[in-house]
Specification:
Layout (H helix, E strand, L loop, with lengths): L25 H11 L5 E4 L6 H8 L3 E6 L2 H11 L4 H14 L27 H4 L2 H15 L4 H18 L2 E3 L2 E4 L8 H17 L2 H5 L4 E4 L2 H5 L7 E6 L9 H4 L1 H7 L3 H7 L4 H4 L4 H22 E12 L1 E3 L2 E3 L1 H10 L3 E10 L9 H5 L3 E9 L2
Parallel strand pairs: 1-2, 1-6, 2-5, 6-7
Antiparallel strand pairs: 3-4, 7-11, 8-9, 10-11
The structure holds S-adenosylmethionine (SAM).
Length: 378
């Protein structure tokens, strides 16, 4: 199934706004919308990440709700699935035209460049290892300017662009290589990367699709805690890709971005399900049990907030702890059968056959990815 969508474009509309590990392919989401949803439905992605489900949800005229623990995921999901008024678009366009990079590096047309003494650069561990001084100054200046906006929609879109450029303007080798290398970034790199990014965003938003969509509802926090606020039988359909065990560390991936945007990564690290930090110090048995316990709690809540006879599609990959592969389809089956769900279908493929993987090391491991369709029989 996943192999079928290999050649289709995955960055249309706002889908290309920001990189994100283990992103959904929009066509997969649509395949299940076509099978189980209709316009007007209220749908949930309880681990929405960069908001692929939410974008497709609003484009398909559904009320889309997403939850994610990571504040960067929250910013990206909102930026991608919000409606922007023409006034908001004009304000954003004006903002970037003020920044227009000048001919001389570091000089920007009408942008009020403040003296270094008036800019407070955030102090976080190893900042000078990861960011050149000129880059840090420009980032701090830009962040200060964005903070001045009161309109939450505008501010959030600009934060999303700010977050997108962080790795490029840092000394980090690439999105997936966490080593520092000398890049000799010239003055002006931050502001020019930022204006390019925002210009691309505006171009993506300038489509017929944009005029029809409504905002998705995005929540930032622990899924189990947030779901408690929803009444029973609220959702018509659920689709998600939960965190895999011992595979990605989303808090780590976004750590520099969180520093720059003023977030503390430590509470995220603590609550993020499946990450290495939570698993490394434990035995296979304990790590697996802890993961199952977190997911069981959440599945129980998902079952409660879902309508009777509604469908729930979960895409999940196997994990390896202490050299032993954990077959996640079996884990999910065990959890779900204790929480009113019956298994309608399981499709499994080798991860090395997909293009969805963010990281080759991850995709080449002997692991499978399972697409599991569940029905709520409560
Ligand atoms: C596989 S990713 C989702 C990717 C998403 N489908 C997309 O298209 O971008 C899993 C997500 O689960 C989130 N997560 C991990 N633990 C969480 C928790 N306790 N509560 C809420 N979200 C959590 C991570 O931050 C990550 O964004």
């Amino acid at each position: 199934m996943i192999a079928d969508i290999k050649d289709k474009r995955t960055t249309y509309y706002t889908h290309g706004f920001h990189p994100y590990p283990a992103k959904f392919t929009p066509q997969i989401v649509n395949r299940f919308f076509n099978l189980y949803c209709k316009s007007g439905f209220t749908i949930l992605d309880p681990f929405c990440g960069s908001g692929t489900t939410l974008v497709e949800g609003v484009l398909n005229k559904m009320s889309a709700v997403g939850i994610d623990l990571n504040p960067i995921a929250y910013i990206i999901s909102r930026a991608k699935s919000s409606h922007y008024s023409s006034n908001e678009i004009d304000t954003i366009r004006n903002f970037i035209s003020e920044i227009q990079p000048g001919i001389k590096v570091g000089l920007f047309a009408n942008f009020n460049i403040l003296p270094k003494s008036e800019i407070s650069i955030p102090n976080f561990p190893n900042r000078s290892h990861w960011f050149q001084e000129n880059v840090s100054y420009e980032l701090a200046l830009l962040k200060k300017k964005i903070d001045e906006y009161e309109n939450p929609n505008i501010k959030n879109l600009l934060y999303c662009a700010f977050s997108k450029i962080i790795v490029k303007v840092s000394n980090q080798d690439s999105e997936v290589r966490y080593t520092a290398k000398e890049k000799n970034h010239p003055d002006g790199i931050v502001l020019s990367s930022f204006t390019d990014t925002v210009s691309n965003y505006l171009q993506a938003l300038n489509t017929d699709k944009h005029t029809i969509i409504d905002n998705a509802e995005v929540h930032n926090g622990d899924t189990y805690e947030i779901l408690k606020n929803f009444s029973a039988n609220h959702f018509d359909f659920v689709i998600t890709s939960p965190p895999y065990i011992n595979t990605f560390d989303y808090y780590l991936y976004h750590k520099q971005r969180m520093f720059w945007l003023g977030y503390d990564h430590r509470p995220v690290r603590k609550k993020e399900i499946g990450n290495h930090h939570r698993i490394d110090t434990k035995t296979f048995k304990v790590a697996k049990a802890e993961y199952i316990q977190s997911m069981t709690q959440i599945m129980k809540e998902i079952s409660r907030v879902s309508k009777p006879n509604s469908y729930f599609v979960m895409i999940i990959g196997d994990g390896i702890v202490e050299g032993t592969t954990i077959d996640m389809s079996q884990v999910v089956v065990d959890i779900c059968e204790n929480n009113n769900y019956t298994i309608e279908q399981i499709e499994s493929i080798n991860l090395s056959d997909t293009t969805r993987s963010f990281n080759k090391k991850f995709s080449n491991a002997p692991k499978k990815e399972h697409t599991i369709t569940l029905k709520n029989n409560k």
